[in-house]
C-alpha cells in the first residue's frame, strides 16, 4: 500500500491541496481530508466505460479513427467544454482548433463569461485565497452558495479559517451574503440581503451611491431597505481588508455583465477608502484554467473562432449556445463537459443532429447522443497535469493510479496528428490528380 500526501482535488474551483490518499492494488482504498464530494470522486471506479460508436461498443483505435475522419471532413467544427480537464489538455484543444479552423469555447460562456467581459471593461482588483484566509475581516458572497457548492471554502479559505491577522477565524470576520433566497450560506451571515430577482444592478448601484456620499431617495432598492443599504456600506467601508466573491447568481441573472461591472466598480470605489479585492467563485475544477490557457494561447478567454486562420473573439457569435442554437456548426468535439444535460434544449438537441465526439471519463448524457465516445483517464487521479484554482493560482494535479485509457491531453494530440496527416494526404492526392 502506498500513501500520497498533498493531493489536489480537482472537482471544484477550490482545488483543496491537502488530500491524503491510500492506494492498494492500483485502486484508492482510503481518502483522508476533503469533503464528501471529493471522497466520492477519488473512491469512484475508473475504466468502467468502453469506447462507443453510434452507441455500440467499439475498439479505442477504431473510435479514434472515426473521430479523426469526422473532424477532418467538417467545415465548421466546434470544440467545447475543457473545464474539468488539465491545462495541458486545454492547450492541446486550442492547437487542434487552429488546425481545424474551428470555434473553441469553454463552459465559461454559460457561467462566468459575463464576469470576464466585465473584467475586460473595468479591471479586476484581486488577491489569492491565502490572502483571504490571513487578512480578510469582511467577506461578501454575492449570488453564490459555497456552503453547498464548495464545501471546504469556509473552513480552508474564508469564513471560519484562522489566519495570520485573523487569529480567531469567524469571530474576527463580518460576513455579508446577497442572494434571491435564503441559502445555507445566507444562514451563516451577519447581514443577509435578499435581493429581488433580477434587481442586483439596482442594489449594487445603491451601495455605490452611498459609498460615494450620495443621499438615497426612496425606501427600498431591489428589495433592500435604505437602512440595510447604509448598514452594509458602513461594514464595507470600515473593513481592514475586504473580499467580494461573486457567482452565477450575479453573472447569469438579468443584466449579466452589467451586474458584474457594477460590482467591480463598487470594489474600485471601496479601494479609495480601504483595501478590497474580488474573486469569482468558479465552479468546475479548472474552468479558471480554461480562460487562462485560451487567453495566453490566443489573446482571448473564450468564444474564439479560427476559421480565418487566426483567432477572432466575439461572445454571442462564437459561443456554444449561440452556435448550436443557430445550427452553424457541422461537427462537435466535447471535452470533459456535459452540454447535453446543461445547455438550453434548443442548443443541446442539435448535438444529436450532427456528428458529435465526446472525450470524458464518464458516459454522460452528451455521450449517449454522440456519434463517438472516447473514455479517458480522469485527471488528478489517473492522469497528471495542471489546474488553476479560482484565484488563478496553478496547482499540480498528480497521477496516483494507472488507467487503461490515455489522458484527454494525449487523445487530443492524437486527433490533431491524425487530422494533420489526413489533410496532408488530401493535399498530395489533389496535386497528383
How would you describe this structure to a colleague?
The chain has 433 residues and is an alpha/beta fold. The protein is 37% helix and 19% strand. It has helices at 36-43, 60-73, 87-100, 113-122, 129-135, 146-149, 153-156, 200-211, 226-237, 248-251, 257-270, 287-298, 320-325, 339-342, 345-350, 365-369, 408-432, and strands at residues 2-7, 19-24, 27-32, 52-53, 56-57, 77-81, 103-106, 138-142, 174-179, 191-194, 220-221, 224-225, 242-246, 276-280, 304-305, 312-313, 331-335, 356-359, 372-374, 385-388, 394-397. The strands form five sheets. The chain has a nine-stranded mixed sheet. A five-stranded parallel sheet has the order 10-9-8-13-14. It has a three-stranded antiparallel sheet with strand order 1-2-3. A hairpin with a 2-residue loop joins strand 4 and strand 5 (56-57). The longest helix has 25 residues, at 408-432.
